[in-house]
Amino acid sequence: MAIDKQKTLKRMKSLTELHGAPGFENDVRDYMIEQMEPFVDDFVYNRLGGFYGVKRSKTKNAKRVMVAAHMDEVGFMLTNITENGMLQFTNLGGVATDIWQCQRLQVKTRKGDNYVGVVSNIPKHFQTQGDRPPKIEDLMLDIGNSSAEEVRERGIEIGDSIVPYTPFTQLSEHRYTSKAWDNRYGCLIGIELLEMLQDVELDVDLYVGANVQEEVGLRGARPSAELIGPDVAFVVDCSPANDMQGKQKLSGQIGAGTLIRVKDGTMILKPNFRDYLLQLADEHQITHQYYISPGGTDGGEIHKANTGVPTAVIGMCARYIHSTESVFDIRDYEAARTLLYQSVTHLDDDQIHHLQYD
């Protein structure tokens, strides 16, 4: 089943503009459940906040296939309110320290209100030769208040979460920018996979959902894997592109297709799983590229669960992730979505056994 591009773009905007720092993923989870509910039989949940929609097979004792995204984006947690109404914070996830000055961030209160502010910066006029880029804990968010009392009157308190304030924007015919494409990409592709499969009978029980707290150490993946007990898993995650000066070996190029991630800092793709993906990509003329990353994904935890789970990452890359913006090419998303669909629909008991043991 084809999905209307305007529906995809609407979902992209909704997902990327949601507030979802590590440990604060509720808004993303609520949106995903609402979007997925028409296409699944039921939902299962773990105790950290991860969830999966289940599309059950009519096959008796069907194998279990897991499609795992993560809901969280890099962000911050409020740690101090100064006497003159500035907000200090600590990072949640891996962020560079030199990119946040004069950027807009938004803080979310316990009541669900969002307030936008600007990160402080020393004007050039007042800088000295010895000034260095500040550490995260030295930055302050200016939300327009002049006292701690004014801040607290707005419902803002220590422990609240903060994320970039970045509207979803089209840059050119195929390219877009947003915050949090890592990994609202995976959240989106999971929703749309289920929609594409709504009239398809599978030989497997399909579990599609998302984990929490990936950006702070893959913390939500193992509870999900142990909840589901998958026979095979696909991780859908966004990876950094390093192509601003042209193609740089296997470091990701936007517009060059979905990623065949053969190695990263947490997992090596099994050769027979690699060949399965490549065969499908060739048969269905899906644009793809090899990819190697020093980082990792939730696959690093999922593939080690129980007695071992054959796991592959079906991803795409974007520029400037883990910052206020990420630039990506929608054609890469469409290639990844097609490869995921073909990968799931071609699984049966024999193919799963081959991926597990051959």
Automatic annotation (TrEMBL):
SUPFAM superfamilies: Aminopeptidase/glucanase lid domain, Zn-dependent exopeptidases
Superkingdom field: Bacteria
Pfam families: Peptidase_M42
Cofactors, names only: a divalent metal cation
Record's cofactor remark: Binds 2 divalent metal cations per subunit.
Catalytic residue positions: E214
Chain positions recorded as Zn(2+) 1 binding sites: H70, D182, D237
UniProt keyword list: Aminopeptidase, Hydrolase, Metal-binding, Protease
GO biological process: proteolysis
GO molecular function list: aminopeptidase activity; metal ion binding
Binding site for Zn(2+) 2: D182, E215, H322
Xref: InterPro entries: Peptidase_M42, Peptidase_M42_aminopept, Peptidase_M42_dom2
UniProt similarity note: Belongs to the peptidase M42 family.
PANTHER family from the UniProt entry: AMINOPEPTIDASE, AMINOPEPTIDASE YPDE-RELATED
Protein name according to UniProt: Peptidase M28
Lineage start: Bacteria, Bacillati, Bacillota, Bacilli, Bacillales
